[in-house]
Amino acid sequence: QVQVVESGGGLVHPGGSLRLSCAASGDISIVYAMGWYRQAPGKQRELVAIITSGGSTRYADSVKGRFTISRDNAKNTVYLQMNSLKPEDTAVYYCNADLKVQRIRDEYWGQGTQVTVSS
Question: Nearest-CA neighbor of 99 among 26, 19, 28?
C-alpha cells in the first residue's frame, strides 16, 4: 500500500509565505517525478510545479519567481516553498507522485491541503 500525504497548508495574508510538504511511503521501488497541482473553486486542476528525479524543474508561469519546488530523495519527500502569495493562489494543493510499486509504474495523489490567501 502506498500513501502520499501533504502538509503545511493554511491561511496567510497577501505577501506572506507558506511551505508545503509531501511524503510518499509504502512499498515503493522507484520515485520518478513529483509535483504540485492546485484546484481553485470552479476551476480545473492545474500544474503548479514539477521536479524530476534528477532535479529538473518546471513551473506554471503564474508562480515563476515566487514558488520553489525541491525534493529529498532519501525521504521520498517533495516541498513547495511559496513566497509573495497572492489571493489568486488560494486553492486546494495536491501532491502527485510518479512511482514504481511492485513493478508497476503509476501516478499517486495526496488528499490535498487548503491554502487560503486573504487579508
Answer: 28
